[in-house]
Specification:
Blueprint: H1 2-25, H2 27-37, H3 41-54, H4 59-74, H5 83-103, H6 108-133, H7 144-158, H8 163-175, H9 179-192, H10 198-210, H11 214-227, H12 232-244, H13 248-261, H14 266-303, H15 306-347, H16 352-374, H17 379-406, H18 411-423, H19 427-437
Helix pairs in contact: 2-3, 2-4, 3-4, 4-5, 4-6, 5-6, 5-7, 6-7, 7-8, 8-9, 9-10, 10-11, 10-12, 11-12, 12-13, 13-14, 14-15, 14-16, 15-16, 16-17, 17-18, 18-19
Length: 439
C-alpha cells in the first residue's frame, strides 16, 4: 500500500511539474507575465487575448488575464474605479477554474485561480472595515465612510456570495445616513438567505422605520414576529411601526403581548408606558387649538343676536363635545401610561428614565390645562383649572427631582426642574437648578 501511495504521489508531482514547465515555457505567457510585473497591464491583456483567440480553452491564459486585471485594480489608487477590472478579474479566474477542472490540470496557477479571488476579497473587505471603524492603520481621508462603501462594493463584485460584506455595507450605509441604500442592501441579505434570522428581520425593519416606510416596516416585522415570537426587539419595532402608521391600538396590543409573557419585566412596562404617553401627547396637540376656537366662539356669542347667535352656539356645543371626548381619551391614556411607569419605578427604584418620563407626562398635563385656562372666559372656572394644573406641575417636580437624585450629572433633568420651579414661583430653587443645568 505504501508503495502504491508513493507511486501515485510521484505521478501527481510529475504531472504538476510538467504543466508548470509547459506554462513557464510558453513565450506568450512569459510575455504576459513580464507585462504584469512591469505594470503594463493593457499590453499583457492584449497578449493574452490573442492567445485566447487562438485557443479559447487555454486555462493558463485566462488565469493570467484575471491576474492582470486583479493587479490593475489593486494598484489603482482610485478605489471606486476598481469595480470594472475586478469584475473582469472574477470572470477570467472563474473561466480558468472551469477549464482547469474540465481538463484535469493541477498546477500552481490552477490553485491560485481559486485563492486569488479570496485574497482580493479579503483585501477590499478588511480595508472597508478599517475605514468604517476609524482604524488608525487606514489612511486619513475626508470621508472615510464613503471610502468604506467603495471598498465593500469592490468586495461584493469580487465575491457576490459574501453575505458578510453585504452585512457590513448595510451598516456603513446606516452610519453614513444613506438609509435608502441601507434598506436596499438589507433587502438583498434577507432575499439571499435561505432562512433569515431574527437579527436580519430586526435590522431590515429598523431600516424601514428610519426611512419612514412604515407599511414595509409593518409587513416585515409582522412576519418576523410570527417566526421569532421571543424577539423583544422585533415586537418593540413592530409597535413603533403601528404607532407611526396611525394604528395606536395595534401598537398597544403588541406591547401588552410582551408584558403578558413576562409581567415582571420592567423594560416592557417602560416601553408600553412611553408608547401610551406618546399617543396621549398626540391627542393633546389635537386638543390645544380647539381651546382657542372655543374661546373665540364664546366671545362671538356675546355680541351676536338671533339666528347667528343660535348657529354659533350650536357650533360651540359641537366643538365642546369633541373637546370633551378627546380630553377623556387623553386622560385615560395618560392614567394608563402613569400606571405603567409607576410600576417601573417599583420594579427598578433606581431607574431615572421612568421618573423622567413621569415628569414629562405630568408637565404636559399641566401645560394642556394652562392652555385651557388661558382660553376660558369664566374666571372662576379658570381659577379651578389653574389649581389643577399646579397640582400636576408639582407631581412633575417630584418625579424630576427623583430622576436628578439618581443621576445628578444629567443636565437635562435639571433643566426640566428649572422650568417647573419657575412656573411654580420657586425662584431660589429655579436659580440653583439653572446652575446645575449649565444654562
Amino acid at each position: 500500500m505504501k508503495k502504491i501511495l508513493q507511486s501515485l504521489f510521484g505521478i501527481a508531482l510529475f504531472t504538476t511539474l510538467l504543466v508548470n514547465c509547459g506554462g513557464g515555457g510558453d513565450p506568450i505567457i512569459k510575455e504576459a507575465k513580464d507585462g504584469i510585473q512591469s505594470q503594463n497591464y493593457m499590453a499583457a491583456i492584449a497578449t493574452l487575448d490573442s492567445a485566447i483567440a487562438q485557443d479559447p480553452s487555454n486555462a493558463i491564459a485566462h488565469y493570467y488575464k484575471g491576474l492582470a486585471y486583479a493587479e490593475m485594480a489593486t494598484n489603482n489608487s482610485n478605489v471606486s474605479a476598481r469595480k470594472d477590472p475586478y469584475g473582469k478579474m472574477r470572470e477570467n479566474l472563474l473561466t480558468a477554474q472551469k477549464l482547469y477542472a474540465e481538463q484535469g490540470i493541477q498546477s500552481v496557477e490552477s490553485v491560485e485561480a481559486e485563492l486569488l479571488i479570496d485574497r482580493k476579497w479579503g483585501l477590499e473587505h478588511n480595508a472597508a472595515v478599517q475605514y468604517a471603524t476609524g482604524d488608525s492603520a487606514a489612511p486619513q481621508v475626508a470621508n472615510p465612510l464613503d471610502v468604506a462603501v467603495d471598498h465593500l462594493e469592490n468586495a461584493i463584485i469580487i465575491n457576490p456570495d459574501s453575505l458578510l460584506s453585504y452585512d457590513v455595507l448595510a451598516e456603513v450605509h446606516r452610519l453614513n445616513n444613506n438609509i435608502p441604500k441601507a434598506v436596499e442592501t438589507m433587502e438583498m441579505i434577507v432575499e439571499r438567505k435561505e432562512t433569515p434570522d431574527a437579527y436580519d428581520y430586526d435590522r431590515l425593519g429598523g431600516f424601514y422605520l428610519l426611512n419612514e416606510d412604515y407599511d414595509n416596516a409593518t409587513r416585515v416585522l409582522e412576519e418576523a414576529a410570527e417566526m421569532y415570537p421571543d424577539s423583544v426587539s422585533i415586537y418593540q419595532k413592530l409597535a413603533d411601526a403601528y404607532m407611526n402608521s396611525g394604528q395606536s391600538d395595534e401598537s398597544i396590543r403588541v406591547l401588552e403581548t410582551l408584558i403578558s409573557n413576562d409581567p415582571q419585566n420592567p423594560q416592557y412596562h417602560l416601553v408600553l408606558g412611553t408608547q401610551i404617553y406618546i399617543i396621549a401627547s398626540d391627542i393633546n396637540e389635537e386638543i390645544e387649538p380647539l381651546y382657542a376656537q372655543a374661546y373665540d366662539l364664546e366671545k362671538d356669542i356675546e355680541r351676536l343676536r338671533g339666528n347667528d347667535k343660535a348657529q354659533a352656539q350650536q357650533r360651540l356645543d359641537e366643538l365642546n363635545k369633541n373637546i370633551s371626548a378627546l380630553e377623556m381619551r387623553s386622560s385615560e391614556l395618560t392614567d394608563q401610561a402613569s400606571e405603567e411607569l409607576t410600576l417601573v419605578t417599583e420594579l427598578l427604584p433606581d431607574d431615572a428614565r421612568a421618573y423622567n418620563i413621569l415628569g414629562i407626562l405630568n408637565q404636559n398635563r399641566a401645560s394642556l390645562l394652562f392652555e385651557k385656562r388661558t382660553n376660558t372666559v369664566d374666571n372662576d372656572k379658570a381659577a379651578e383649572i389653574y389649581e389643577e394644573a399646579k397640582s400636576y406641575l408639582t407631581e412633575a417636580m417630584v418625579s424630576y427631582e427623583k430622576a436628578a437624585e439618581i443621576e445628578p450629572d444629567n443636565t437635562g433633568y435639571w433643566e426640566s426642574l428649572f422650568r417647573v420651579y419657575t412656573a411654580l414661583g420657586m425662584n431660589e430653587k429655579a436659580e440653583e437648578a439653572m446652575k446645575k443645568a449649565g444654562m
